[in-house]
Amino acid sequence: MLPGGGAPGRLLRYGDGPDQVAEYYPGTDPTALVLFVHGGFWRARYDRTHARPLAAALSEAGFAVLLPEYRRVGQPGGGWPGTLHDVATAVDELPAAVAPQLPLLVAGHSAGGHLALWAAARHHLPPDAPGARPAAQGIRGVLGLAPVADLASASRLGLGDGATDAFLGGSPADRPDRYAVADPTALPPPGTPVTVLHGLADDIVPTDVVRGYAADGRAEFVLLPGADHFGVITPGSEDWPHVVSALRKLADEAKGAEERQ
């Protein structure tokens, strides 16, 4: 089940809508800034509040953390294309506003993992696609936690009671144009280090939904024996140290890349 509780961070805005906000957890002497995109199958009934304990725990572990909200399916402007526009804007605007000196890592869980992987590949999108940008942004690493990385596969399996089709307005056969620009597996690799952590006991997003994304070596794919869908976002769980370790590794890789430049 979803974790609960947790104190809110400092509220920031990246748009005029009530869900175009983020919470900021500055941490103490952070090594990197983690922009964490929460999950919930892109649906309105799941918001950022369940990820507050994760954000607070990461800030205690040596990271500054941004926890953005975004418009979701069931809300005005949510789903296609508003959800994508919101995440793209949050990634482009918020890090520079709070910690431009820190390397940026983008992470996400479940549907938020999809959005994190997609955000890192936006420079490959055609100019008229939602969230397109002409050049790679400053993302230095990506962490997907049980991500819905292959939208076509998720649609075929009917994950989340048809959540993918609700998000994109139909199946891949109905909306091939949308899947072509929203599905991370259909896009070229981001060009930055990507790590995926996924529990072998996950019965909400099966590991097969990630294997297609990771098959060509575009991500380090780490399977966690015994882990379910929510252990990776629950501080104090047996799976939590793997999350912190993966982010520290990405931060170290980003630092090393900067020193070599």
UniProtKB/TrEMBL annotation:
Entry keywords, A to Z: Hydrolase
Keyword Hydrolase: yes
Hydrolase found in the keyword field: yes
Entry-linked InterPro entries: AB_hydrolase_fold (IPR029058), BD-FAE-like_dom (IPR049492), GDXG_lipolytic_enzyme (IPR050300)
SUPFAM superfamilies registered for this protein in UniProt: alpha/beta-Hydrolases
GO molecular function term, any single one: hydrolase activity
Gene3D superfamilies from the UniProt entry: alpha/beta hydrolase
Domain BD-FAE-like residues, every copy: 28-208
Name of the protein this chain belongs to: Alpha/beta hydrolase
Organism: Cryptosporangium minutisporangium
